[in-house]
Amino acid sequence: MSRLKLENISKNFGAIQALSEVSLEVAPGEVLGLMGDNGAGKSTLVKIIAGNFPASSGEIRIDDRPAHFNKPLDAQTAGVEIVYQDLALCNNLTAASNVFLGREAMRRIGPFNILDYPAMNRRAADLFKQLKSETRARDLVRRMSGGQRQAVAIARTLLSEPKIVLMDEPTAAISVRQVAEVLDLIRRLRDRGISVIIISHRMPDVFGVADRIAVMRRGRLVASKATATSSPEEVTGLITGAIETA
């Protein structure tokens, strides 16, 4: 069974064809590395999966059931979460407050509802423990490393018990040690049976964590194959067009 199945997804922006009949499958607990040059259509495809805008044609299926997304909330309800490249974190808030941003836990005192900080701290700490991250619930985000910030963003996705997590350049602009932390976080998601799609330009990171690699060029999918059967040289050739398909 496929966790996510895309069938002939196309997207037009006026006269511009951003995607052309992209068909792709992701299994439960599989990490897919989505690669391609700038303008290849990677971000457009991920935004369609995330519900940012609808496909012009084609079908999305989750767990073999048709899925129709008109807005991001529709995708979230279906089990799709996304971690954007900028992480969308508030530097002046704690890790726990960022995990619960927009979904805050409340408790009632007399006629008033107030934020339940102890409950949010406990739940966030539990999520960080599940991810085997050293991030602490009460720490301010502005004092965190890039790896810890990614842990906060990933923990936030786990609140809704997602089926699919989309990650846009998760290892960009962080140190080698922090890259290792983030790749471990991605493996933890896989170990929980969550399907992960990562957009990345960093070849070593993709080959280090992805079970399968999909390559896009000029809005078309030109390869989707097991990482073990490919190589950085082949992927580079597919990205540049030196190799047509694989």
UniProtKB/TrEMBL annotation:
<dbReference type="InterPro" id="IPR050107">
    <property type="entry name" value="ABC_carbohydrate_import_ATPase"/>
</dbReference>
<dbReference type="Pfam" id="PF00005">
    <property type="entry name" value="ABC_tran"/>
</dbReference>
<keyword id="KW-0067">ATP-binding</keyword>
<dbReference type="InterPro" id="IPR027417">
    <property type="entry name" value="P-loop_NTPase"/>
</dbReference>
<dbReference type="InterPro" id="IPR003593">
    <property type="entry name" value="AAA+_ATPase"/>
</dbReference>
<dbReference type="InterPro" id="IPR003439">
    <property type="entry name" value="ABC_transporter-like_ATP-bd"/>
</dbReference>
<dbReference type="InterPro" id="IPR017871">
    <property type="entry name" value="ABC_transporter-like_CS"/>
</dbReference>
<feature type="domain" description="ABC transporter">
    <location>
        <begin position="4"/>
        <end position="243"/>
    </location>
</feature>
<dbReference type="GO" id="GO:0005524">
    <property type="term" value="F:ATP binding"/>
</dbReference>
<keyword id="KW-0547">Nucleotide-binding</keyword>
<dbReference type="GO" id="GO:0016887">
    <property type="term" value="F:ATP hydrolysis activity"/>
</dbReference>
<protein>
    <submittedName>
        <fullName>Monosaccharide ABC transporter ATP-binding protein, CUT2 family (TC 3.A.1.2.-)</fullName>
    </submittedName>
</protein>
